[in-house]
């Protein structure tokens, strides 16, 4: 069962359509990537889910029922445009936001102390926010977002400004939150992050949902029947003429101890006879499909290079 369902949501601002009949389902206990170029409509959709604004048409369901005002207490949102009150002390401000989310001061203090220790920032409790580095401030905001243990977490470009070590720390925490039962919406332009942590994605482009599904299934769906062959022997054995009934040779790279070739199959049925021919002509050591990365799929989708039938 999905935790969040968006049905045919449309939102217009004057002459601009920010969202045009967008639908999606976010499975419970998953990391769901919300992708798209700048201006595609991602932030507008996030604002609707958070009840910051309302759709012109369409509906949003949370936990099996229409999204209600009190549901904001079960949502944690870390926006891309972040801000803390610079003159307040770090611990004081974190407590203030935690209590806004319904935690008692005692419970909030206990949870905050534990998170500050985990992130190695306990000594900053009584320092002013204006003394924090950008990365340190983002850690504080991450903690504030997850502290009340919401059912749904929404992170908008959470790794922006982080060095690789701290980005990896946050990635692991997001996965741990998912494993503990939270559902996560992850909005990003970083396709490597999508492949590392997202279970499902929706790609929004020009205000419309152009692609949705499980990450692994989408990568397989948009493969182009390209295979990598690792072999020993004479590369000339892979002549285009002999292989033509089964594939076209995209390139051969000589190496030691094995050469590598990439080929595109003429059909899925060509796998068995091709492997048979390769075993006859070469010392075959590897035969594997080249699965496209999400970055390639993103670019092809935004440029309109994916077949319409694949979107359905």
From TrEMBL:
Q: Which residues does UniProt call coiled coil?
A: none
Family according to the record: Belongs to the ABC transporter superfamily.
ABC transporter domain ranges (all copies)? 4-231
Q: Which Pfam families match?
A: ABC_tran, DrrA1-3_C
> InterPro entries, alphabetically?
AAA+_ATPase (IPR003593), ABC_transporter-like_ATP-bd (IPR003439), ABC_transporter-like_CS (IPR017871), ABC_transporter_ATP-binding (IPR050763), DrrA1/2-like_C (IPR025302), P-loop_NTPase (IPR027417)
What is the official name of this protein in its record?
Answer: ATP-binding cassette domain-containing protein
Keyword Glycoprotein present in the record's keywords: the answer is: no
UniProt keyword Iron, yes or no: no
GO molecular-function terms, A-Z: ATP binding
Q: Which UniProt keywords apply?
A: ATP-binding, Nodulation, Nucleotide-binding, Transport
Q: Record's superkingdom?
A: Bacteria
